[in-house]
Design goal:
8-stranded mixed beta sheet, 4-stranded antiparallel beta sheet, 12 strands, about 30% helix, binds iron/sulfur cluster, ATP binding, P-loop_NTPase, nucleotide-binding
């Protein structure tokens, strides 16, 4: 047991050079700023749900948290050990990169692609047990696997253990992927759109199952979704936090009752407007609060606050510097000048649509 967060990210940036473009000699390649200046701690047995549109960088940030994506700058630590220094063998390495990676697992949107089509469920689930419990014999492994299959409702487990992935439904495949991740005894599971491909009726069951097993395995979840409704369900049920991402930045984060009960960032309000079951006045919520402009190109994001081209509250002061996050409530942070009492924003002229005409925009998204 340690007081260190399981994962701690500080001022993380992840920039990608765009591939495939033929550049005139001497021109620099274009760079996508997939994640920019994000800091986030994930303690033990915690749930953080990250939400944002396609291309906002949430998946890239998730992969950075579990050590499968190297940040361009900033630090990512597992229980106080810098993940990439462990990988490079730099400085004091108390926890090896191999051990770190085993402790940070992922379940994907498409479990069918993640499971080997030529291996039975039994075979797929034996691998993590052999790695984490090398002393277990064949009988003990079989018993443990059957116990887990029964726990997630796949009964009779003896039958399910013999099946191949194509003999399972999508929901059953996702349960096997979840068991496989949990049998590694992870400290954190990145659930990347893990319920998005399931029928709506099965999504709640899967999220309930994740939280039920969280207590048994004492793991944390970084849950990533483009769907605010799903994110609010899992964060709300677990007393977790919800984080809102926009164009590579974490613009608002906090406990669910604060962020959705008293949203401070105009983008959070826009996401709530687009999610009628979360809108306090769904029947009479009026027109979209977003300016009618495409999502900016992440290769050429707007200056200042990146949301200013779509923000209904934008003023000229928003186009200069990127706003720093400020604490507005209990563990509730927001990156918007409206959260500052005495910022020049309040005396700055409103930004009109005419003033935005010359900004380059695109609905193309290259990083998720
Ligand atoms: S800083 Fe300005 S543009 Fe950005 S969200 Fe706040 S009001 Fe809108």
């Amino acid at each position: 047991m340690t007081d260190e967060p399981v994962v701690s990210m500080e001022n993380v940036e992840v920039h990608f050079e765009t591939e495939g473009s033929i550049l005139p000699f001497g021109d620099d390649p274009e760079v996508v700023q997939a994640v920019d200046g994000v800091s986030l701690d994930i303690p033990e047995n915690d749930v953080v749900a990250l939400v944002g549109e396609s291309g906002c960088g949430k998946t890239t940030l998730g992969k950075t948290a579990i050590g499968t994506q190297r940040p361009t700058s900033g630090s990512v630590k597992y229980k106080g050990q810098d993940i990439w220094k462990a990988n490079d063998g730099e400085g004091d390495v108390e926890i090896s990169f191999k051990e770190i990676r085993q402790s940070l697992q992922i379940i994907h949107q498409d479990p069918g692609a993640a499971l080997n089509p030529n291996k039975t469920v039994q075979h797929s689930l034996e691998a993590p047990l052999k790695l984490r419990h090398p002393d277990m014999d064949t009988f003990e492994r079989r018993e443990r696997i059957h116990e887990m299959l029964a726990r997630v409702g796949m009964e009779p487990p003896e039958d399910y253990a013999k099946r191949f992935p194509h003999q399972l439904s999508g929901g059953e495949q996702q349960r096997v992927a979840l068991i496989r991740a949990l049998l590694m005894n992870p400290d954190l599971i990145l659930a990347d759109e893990a319920v998005s491909a399931l029928d709506v009726s099965l999504r709640i069951d899967m999220m309930d199952l994740m939280l039920d097993l969280q207590d048994t395995f004492n793991t944390s979840f970084l849950f990533i979704s483009h769907n605010l409704s799903n994110a609010s369900y899992i964060a709300g049920k677990s007393d977790g936090r919800i984080g809102i991402m926009y164009l590579g930045e974490l613009v608002e984060i906090g406990p669910i009752d604060e962020v959705l009960g008293d949203p401070q960032h105009p983008y959070t309000k826009a996401l709530m407007w687009a999610t009628p079951n979360l809108h306090p006045d769904a029947a009479d919520r009026g027109d979209s609060p977003l300016r009618k402009i495409d999502v900016p190109d992440p290769r050429n994001p707007p200056t200042g606050c990146r949301f200013h081209t779509r923000c209904p509250e934008a003023r000229e002061a928003c186009t200069g510097e990127m706003p720093d996050a400020v604490t507005v409530g209990d563990d509730h942070d927001v990156a918007c000048y409206r959260a500052y009492d005495d910022h020049e924003y309040w005396s700055s002229p409103e930004l009109t649509d005419d003033g935005l005409d010359n900004l380059g925009t695109s609905d193309e998204s290259t990083a998720d």
